[in-house]
Amino acid sequence: MNLEDYYSKLSKLWEKLNLLRKEDKIKSVEILAFDNFWYTINKKNLPGIRIKLENTQKVGENIFPKAKGWEIIFGQNIIEMHLNNKNHKDFFIKIVNLIIAKIYFNKLSGLKSIRLFFEELNSGKDFFEDEDIPKKLTPESQIGLFGEMVVMSKVLTKKISSKNSLLFWTGPFKEHDFTTDKILIETKTTVSESKKISTSSTNQISPKFEKKLFICFIQLNKNSSGISLNQIIDEFLEKLKIESNLLVNEFLLKLARARYFDIHRDHYHQKYSVDKLNYYEVRDDFPYIKKVEIPDEISDLSMTYKIDLDKCEDFRIDEDQLLNKI
What we know:
Elements: H1 3-23, E1 29-34, E2 37-41, E3 47-52, E4 70-75, E5 78-83, H2 89-105, H3 110-123, H4 139-155, H5 162-167, E6 178-179, E7 183-190, E8 196-198, E9 212-228, H6 229-243, H7 245-257, E10 271-282, E11 306-308, E12 316-317, H8 319-323
Parallel strand pairs: 7-9
Antiparallel strand pairs: 1-2, 2-3, 3-5, 4-5, 6-7, 8-11, 9-10, 10-12
Helix pairs in contact: 1-2, 2-3, 2-7, 4-6, 6-7
């Protein structure tokens, strides 16, 4: 079964559940999705997942991700999870379908499938902390995601496969945008002529990580002859479709975690062309905040600052130097 057919099958299960729920408004209803995963709709008309365990299957509660938007109940040979917030309903169904598809195409079952389900759900749990309905990406977030797509589909693929380029993309759930076997890459994208970049934390741009960190700085022009965020995503998606269902599913999962949803596509019509692409190596002498004295009375300190890349020419490298580090 191909990916689109399998998504269609899962979507029809939710439709069938809704019909069952309308017929019986007193009880919660369930339907088998795959292996020991059952889709449910509870008495409050909210979707959920029911995982039925064999007597020999032991699952530690430490694998369950916590979030405001859901509740997880661990019972005798059963794990039940349901939403608390109806605003998350559509996204929950989408992300659950993607995770079940990943389990299906990886041919996983038993404890391996359960662990994968909660690992994937945990990667997207920040969405469920927000009580509002999904909002479209801000202009800044659109530009940031566009830059990550440029690096993934246009830069890294000069050296490595589309598959590895995708698997190295960790921006939706880790501190840096790309985590390769040997290095980290942080992408900074702007439509401004300024070469000042902001950090999202005190140490985001610093040499304090186990792997060497590199910066990819992208300056874009708004250009009617360029391509939109939708187009650069669709182009890469078509490449992945040639390779495998698994890669397409993985890409869609990561896009969802990055809060890119099809329902907002009409808002992402702005086209861009790449004006400049510069690369920097974050060495020990790279400018960063090396030490912060924090009095005991201060807690939950957060700090951001800007780095002027015009003054960091000594750290600039060319594209081949970066690609040879991967």
